[in-house]
Amino acid sequence: MEPQITARNWIQILALGLVWGATFLVMELALRGIGPAWLAAGRIGFAGLLTLAIWWLRGARLFLGDATDWGTLAICGLLSTALPFMLLTFGLQHVTSGFAGVSMAAVVLMVLPLAHFLIPGEKMTLRRTLGFVIGFAGILVLIGPGAFAASGAEGEVLGRLACLAAASCYAISSVLLRRLPAIDPLGLTAMTFVIGSALVLPAAWLMEGPPPRTDAITLFWVVVLGMIPTAAANLLRILVIRSAGPVFMGLVNYMVPVASVLLGALILSEPLPPGLLSAMMLILAGMGLSQYGALSRLFRRRPLP
């Protein structure tokens, strides 16, 4: 089934960009009372329990018939949650935040060739590719010249590889999620968290020891992270991928850094980068060019060939 991009899908990715852009602020608050590995485990574990309970109350109807589909689901669970979370946790200890931001923005550039060969209706046209490259250039302008600057930390090369590997996880899982057969989105979301928890919980124990005793404020932030940017946002991500496709979903990776910068300035009084306006113009131009066909259909105009 070819992707069907609607006005609802645009609203959904705008909401995801805002939610995930604000996640960095909440993570900073949570990390004051808990280690990064247990924070990732807490987010995924709570999101898994929440979505599993709601899905169970709704009848717990799944979908898959053969072993191939179950195998694909297992891979999606690993690549959507636990593995990229752990790779980023390791990578951010050795690289600059600018490089990590560029790595996440590169997800859509990784999705393009994968979707071209594996998903009907997601061909790499010149217009689409050029649009995404322009949007990526906007991210580079936003982050500034420090995007590729060396952090000076030991293990920086491995840290950069870990960030790029995390981006690859998101790209591959987006394509695989799209290729699954008809499925209950809530059940799919719950199962990805359950599978991810099976990996991240023992990994957190090995990395940081037994679960730490945290204060009520830290626990509150962990619950917030598990409920909104993890459980709710990943359900929304799956809905977008299943209806509009992984390439369209990739646009959110251009929105998150902009939202993060704007929220940081608004809430934490952080200075705005000098290239913000130019970056936003490039990002918007790139998004518009790459999705010209979808926008034309949305506004009932004849698309360019």
TrEMBL record:
<dbReference type="InterPro" id="IPR037185">
    <property type="entry name" value="EmrE-like"/>
</dbReference>
<feature type="transmembrane region" description="Helical">
    <location>
        <begin position="130"/>
        <end position="151"/>
    </location>
</feature>
<dbReference type="InterPro" id="IPR050638">
    <property type="entry name" value="AA-Vitamin_Transporters"/>
</dbReference>
<dbReference type="Pfam" id="PF00892">
    <property type="entry name" value="EamA"/>
</dbReference>
<comment type="similarity">
    <text>Belongs to the EamA transporter family.</text>
</comment>
<keyword id="KW-0812">Transmembrane</keyword>
<feature type="transmembrane region" description="Helical">
    <location>
        <begin position="219"/>
        <end position="240"/>
    </location>
</feature>
<keyword id="KW-0472">Membrane</keyword>
<feature type="transmembrane region" description="Helical">
    <location>
        <begin position="247"/>
        <end position="269"/>
    </location>
</feature>
<feature type="domain" description="EamA">
    <location>
        <begin position="12"/>
        <end position="143"/>
    </location>
</feature>
<feature type="transmembrane region" description="Helical">
    <location>
        <begin position="98"/>
        <end position="118"/>
    </location>
</feature>
<feature type="transmembrane region" description="Helical">
    <location>
        <begin position="12"/>
        <end position="31"/>
    </location>
</feature>
<feature type="transmembrane region" description="Helical">
    <location>
        <begin position="275"/>
        <end position="295"/>
    </location>
</feature>
<keyword id="KW-1133">Transmembrane helix</keyword>
<feature type="transmembrane region" description="Helical">
    <location>
        <begin position="186"/>
        <end position="207"/>
    </location>
</feature>
<dbReference type="InterPro" id="IPR000620">
    <property type="entry name" value="EamA_dom"/>
</dbReference>
<feature type="transmembrane region" description="Helical">
    <location>
        <begin position="70"/>
        <end position="92"/>
    </location>
</feature>
<feature type="transmembrane region" description="Helical">
    <location>
        <begin position="37"/>
        <end position="58"/>
    </location>
</feature>
<protein>
    <submittedName>
        <fullName>DMT family transporter</fullName>
    </submittedName>
</protein>
<feature type="transmembrane region" description="Helical">
    <location>
        <begin position="157"/>
        <end position="177"/>
    </location>
</feature>
<feature type="domain" description="EamA">
    <location>
        <begin position="159"/>
        <end position="289"/>
    </location>
</feature>
